[in-house]
Amino acid sequence: MKHRTLTLAALALTLGAVAAAQAGIPKGITIAFLPKQVNNPYFTTAWKGGQAAIKEFSGVGKQVGPSDAGASSQVSYINTLLAQRQKAIVVSASDQNALVPYLKRAMQQGVKVVTYDSDVAPDGRHLFVSQASSDTIGRDQIKLLAKQINYSGEIAVLSATPNATNQNAWIKVMQDELKKPEYKNMKLVKIAYGNDDDQKSFTEMQGLMQAYPNLKGVISPTTVGISAAARYLSSSPYKGKVALTGLGTPNQMREFVKNGTVQGFALWNPEELGYLASYAAAALVSGQISGKEGERFKAGKLGERTIGKNGVIILGPLTVFDKSNIDKFNF
């Protein structure tokens, strides 16, 4: 009986916290998610979190978007969402600058714009919900790979599109990290682009091994790229000999971790990223925040969050997945 009483008390506290988080958010707020790609498992998971938050504050949500990762493909969706008078657009941009004129027009019409995962130039949105700081993401990937190749050998990066804002920012940090003395025996020989397309990423990984037969390791800071690269390596003579790390989801990478193709990789929780983006959009629409540095808002189960410099909200640190913990995660 005592245990049941404690459980009910804990449940009441949780519901109370969520209710408090919803306070001040009017029902029926319309929020539209516009990811880079709708058929990308990463964005499907982020949208799952976004939907959960929208349900908590009784909003109305939907996700639309292209099946390719081109910036021009996202423009028509922005125009359609404007015509539909959505209160907020939550977008992961395929290009830092190409969407800005269209998002500015949306803001001029009163639409709140939140970017998540991949940002645009700051004047093209109110807030950016970042998975982690670019510095953390870039440096941690170099550190992961360095340990796997014993700090020595040729390495390459298999990225998304050449214009992808987030990947380019992380790669810049990686190049800076590599200048440190402990990486003096590591050499970045190539940055390849798979365009967040599974088959092209697979082919690019194959091409890297043909062009650089002494390659010791590859970083793929994109969920599409790392899974395609792992698939190539797992059926090649390079399995277990060429290290592969980067950013992936546990469900995509579980097979390759267990069969020895991949030692470890990292990611934040994309479901929580979408969840936080929805609450940030609702806080803007309801007038709780305007996007200024230092403003705070409540984000349901994630607690209170503070807006940082340039309207950036950080989700949290990366989690490293390997054989010891990958079965504890399901996304």
Automatic annotation (TrEMBL):
Residues 31-288 form the Periplasmic binding protein domain. GO terms for biological process: rhamnose transmembrane transport. The keyword Disulfide bond does not apply. The lineage of its organism: Bacteria, Thermotogati, Deinococcota, Deinococci, Deinococcales. GO terms for cellular component: outer membrane-bounded periplasmic space. The keyword Signal applies. One of its GO terms (molecular function) is carbohydrate binding. Pfam families: Peripla_BP_4 (PF13407). It comes from Deinobacterium chartae. This is Rhamnose transport system substrate-binding protein. It comes from the Bacteria. It is found in: Cell envelope. InterPro entries: Bact_Solute-Bind_Prot2 (IPR050555), Peripla_BP_I (IPR028082), RhaS (IPR013459), SBP_2_dom (IPR025997). Residues 1-23 form the signal peptide. Coiled coil: none annotated. CDD domains: PBP1_ABC_rhamnose. Keywords: Signal.
